[in-house]
Amino acid sequence: MSATVAYDLLEEQTRALLSGERDFIANAGNFAAFVYHEIPDVNWAGFYVATASGELLLGPFCGRPACTRLPAGRGVCGAAAARRATLVVDDVNAFGDHIVCDPASRSEIVVPVLVAGRMIAVFDCDSPRLARFSEADRAGIERLVAVFSESVQPPERPER
After folding, report:
1. How far apart, in whole angstroms, are the C-alpha atoms of residue 54 and residue 72?
2. Phi, psi (degrees; rounded to nearest 5) at 107
3. Residue 16 burial (C-beta neighbours within 10 Å; 0-12, 13-18, 19+)
4. How far apart are CA 102 and CA 38, in angstroms?
5. How far, in Å, CA of 111 to CA of 86, rounded?
6. What span, in angstroms and rounded, lies between the C-alpha atoms of 45 and 86?
7. CATH for the 7-151 domain, from 3.30.413.10, 3.40.1160.10, 2.120.10.30, 3.30.450.40
8. Which of 18, 1, 20 shows the shortest CA–CA distance to 10?
9. Per-residue pLDDT tens for 24-71?
10. Residue 140, by phi and psi: left (phi above 0), alpha (psi -120 to 50) or beta?
C-alpha cells in the first residue's frame, strides 16, 4: 500500500519553489529534486526533453545514471509522449517495450509536459516497488507537472 502523499501541500510548495523563475533547466532541476525527495518510494525522477527528430533526450533528473536518448515512441516514456497522455505502469517488466535504464525500477509513471499546447518533454518517475503509483498519485503528479509547465518557457529543441 502506498503512503498517503499530501499533494495539495506539494502543489503549494512547487508553486513557491518555481515562483519567479522561467528557465526550463533551472526549474526542471529543482522540480526533479523536489519530487525525488518528497514523494516516498521513488528511485528516479526527471525529464526527457523532446527533440526535433522525435527522440527523447535526458534532461535534469535525480537518481542513478540514466539512458541518454530514447528512440521516438519507444519505451514507457516514448509511449506517453506519442499518446500525449500519462502512462502508469504497475510492472515495467510486463511492459513489452520497456527500456531498462535502472534494473531496480519496478513501476513507473510518465507525464507529458505541455507548454502552449506543445509537448516539450516528459516527466518520468520510477519506483523500486511494484504498483507504486495509484490513481491518487497519477492525479497528484499530473497537478505538479501542470504547475511546472506553467512556470517555464519552452526550451530550444535539442538536435542530434
Report:
1. 5
2. -135, 165
3. exposed
4. 20
5. 4
6. 15
7. 3.30.450.40
8. 18
9. 999 999 999 999 999 999 999 999 999 999 999 999 999 999 999 998
10. alpha
